């Protein structure tokens, strides 16, 4: 009989859901590299799968942990964050309607626009910081409401509970990309969402060595089964080694996210009064328009991502980016090393970032070292 309370999420993550290998006693889950699995004499399956495109033990371990961290009925890992998002959108049928926030990761929005044209979907973009505008957009029958919070790379904070309430009242499935907040800071299903998505490449893995996506769902119903079918049918399956690395990364998720959040707040506070910075975009600053909403729905920190607008425009921003010595000039976010990126250059014609914007992904370096690096770079703006 158990005489202790259920472990907290930090404990579940650190112990990979208290894993012990029954065959060897190993506390580190083994990598099961096989793509095919033997059957019994009567041709019944020996375990839950016959072929790795349909699932592996490494999937099941990662998915089980993600489901517990998100408070979900079920979870799924996929080949990338975009694959995860696409598997959800592909449940729509021609003519059906999806309402999305007008600011989000540019790569997904570009794909969504193209797929909607091909598939004859009714794609509606709306500023969901305006709840009245969202309510008007939901006056017509809508199947999916999709948004991010905080949004990338402008770091708007959307009221998850309010959006979920409006979406459900309209009969829609409410889906949130919570890549930046992670379950460490926000649990969207508890705020009323039907599904939460992660680009697991980022914080869940946290080491810049895995391409992966993840979904967690409040109810494992027929809609969820169609999502899983989409994963398998288009070959968006995650490899066993990637799933193993993802689980390894999640064991340090909580201290990583909390440390990055603490350092990001330190940088944002300092840069907010810097003479060569026009504006800092970070939900942890009281001056941020979404700060109060962020305080309500982000527990224990405001995330490790911020953007700065450099005085002098795009050319000055590029000079700052080029002058950094500790910040790596690279795409992606959520890893142990700090990254800086001129988003306008990277996004190209599909982008939303102004030329003066630099996006910073704060890692686990000492905050004083990161501040010194930004100071010397800004001096060259």
Précis, in short:
The protein has 381 residues and is α/β, with parallel strands linked by helices. It is 37% helix and 14% strand. It has a seven-stranded mixed sheet with strand order 1-7-6-5-4-2-3, sandwiched between helices. It has a five-stranded mixed sheet with strand order 8-9-12-11-10.
What features would you describe in this structure?
The protein is of the alpha/beta class and 381 residues long. Helix content is 37%, strand content 14%.
Quickly count the domains: 2
The fourth-level CATH homologous superfamily of the largest domain is Type I PLP-dependent aspartate aminotransferase-like (Major domain)
Mean pLDDT: 94
Question: How would you write the strand order of the largest sheet?
Answer: 1-7-6-5-4-2-3
CATH topology grouping of the largest domain: Aspartate Aminotransferase, domain 2
**Name of the top-level CATH class of the largest domain:** Alpha Beta
Order of helices and strands: HHEHEHEHEHEHEEHHHEHEHEEHEH
User: What does the main sheet amount to?
Assistant: 7 strands, mixed
The dominant shape is globular
Structural class: alpha/beta
The rounded Rg comes to 21 Å
How many DSSP H or I helices? 14
Low-pLDDT segments? none
Task: Describe the secondary structure blueprint for this structure.
Layout (H helix, E strand, L loop, with lengths): L8 H6 L42 H14 L3 E5 L2 H9 L7 E5 L4 H14 L2 E5 L4 H7 L6 E5 L11 H10 L3 E5 L4 H4 L9 E4 L14 E5 L4 H12 L6 H11 L2 H19 L5 E5 L9 H7 L7 E6 L2 H11 L4 E2 L9 E3 L1 H5 L9 E5 L5 H12 L3
Parallel strand pairs: 2-3, 2-4, 4-5, 5-6, 10-11
Antiparallel strand pairs: 1-7, 6-7, 8-9, 9-12, 11-12
